């Protein structure tokens, strides 16, 4: 039974998690330095690939582009966990949070395993396959967040939801200052109605910031992947960790939205 007290307790747990995310270990700060140095020696074909990502991320927000995911598989998982014969996207909002969480956890596990395989595969060729790994991992990240959005009853076909997804991606890869700023923006997003959500688009401050912040998260961990063959191990471990952390962030942020909406509904009923 999702009582008001239970929802508020769960909300406090999420807010504690948010505060914990704003700490950045010293080694993570150091880990961001190599890519800044690497820019000076990065082959032109990798720089070109980063440029393509900028266009693709902009296309994702505007239209969904090639990254827009299908909802059928997620609906099937929700039917399985809820033991209901039929569930449509509009029905998800009324499901128990425990059902949403179960599907979210399953997605986190499955996508982390997929990232492990993908990281090992692209780690075989060192720096040359790293050019492939970065865009593939970005695509997997966007699809994972979309699937989590659906699991909590939000539709990625909605442009505003895709903006929220990109902000969630930024949050997962940002530094301390960036995380705080994004949490402030998302806090405002939670309390806006759909007619004013379009203002969020102006807060993205260009796709370049998103892609380069995302890329910088690789740090020295990805530098190790540049060693041919040995990069298989580093690529597998790094990609698994990144997608696991990203999925956790997505679950927390979408779970918070759903809890706040349910608390808001309770307040309307009691007034």
Biggest sheet details: none
Mean pLDDT: 78
Count the E strands: 0
Give, in order, the helices and strands. Answer: HHHHHHHHHHHH
Please give the share of residues in helix. Answer: over 70%
Structural class: mainly alpha
- Tell me the distance between the termini: 22 Å
Shape estimate: globular
Low-confidence stretches: none
Strand content: under 5%
> What is the count of helical runs?
12
Radius of gyration: 19 Å
What does this entry look like structurally?
Helices cover 73% and strands 0% of the residues. With 271 residues, it is mainly α. The radius of gyration is 19 Å and the shape is globular. It is built from twelve helices and no strands.
Provide tags for this entry.
EcsC family protein, mainly alpha, EcsC, 271 residues, single chain, 0% strand
């Amino acid at each position: 039974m999702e009582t008001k007290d239970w929802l508020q307790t769960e909300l406090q747990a999420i807010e504690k998690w948010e505060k914990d995310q704003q700490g950045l270990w010293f080694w993570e700060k150091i880990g961001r330095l190599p890519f800044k140095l690497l820019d000076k020696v990065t082959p032109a074909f990798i720089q070109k690939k980063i440029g393509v990502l900028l266009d693709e991320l902009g296309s994702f927000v505007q239209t969904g582009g090639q990254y827009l995911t299908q909802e059928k598989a997620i609906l099937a998982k929700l039917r399985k966990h809820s033991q209901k014969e039929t569930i449509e996207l509009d029905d998800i909002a009324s499901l128990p949070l425990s059902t949403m969480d179960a599907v979210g956890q399953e997605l986190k596990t499955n996508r982390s395993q997929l990232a492990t395989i993908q990281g090992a595969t692209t780690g075989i060729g060192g720096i040359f396959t790293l050019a492939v790994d970065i865009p593939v991992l970005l695509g997997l990240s966007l699809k994972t967040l979309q699937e989590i959005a659906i699991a909590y009853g939000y539709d990625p076909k909605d442009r505003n939801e895709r903006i929220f997804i990109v902000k969630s991606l930024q949050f997962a890869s940002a530094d301390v200052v960036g995380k705080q700023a994004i949490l402030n923006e998302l806090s405002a997003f939670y309390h806006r109605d759909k007619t004013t959500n379009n203002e969020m688009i102006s807060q993205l401050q260009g796709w370049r910031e998103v892609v380069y912040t995302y890329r910088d998260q690789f740090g020295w961990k990805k530098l190790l992947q540049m060693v041919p063959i040995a990069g298989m191990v580093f690529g597998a471990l790094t990609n698994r960790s990144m997608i696991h952390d990203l999925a956790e962030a997505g679950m927390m942020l979408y779970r918070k939205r759903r809890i706040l909406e349910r608390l808001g509904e309770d307040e309307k009923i009691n007034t």
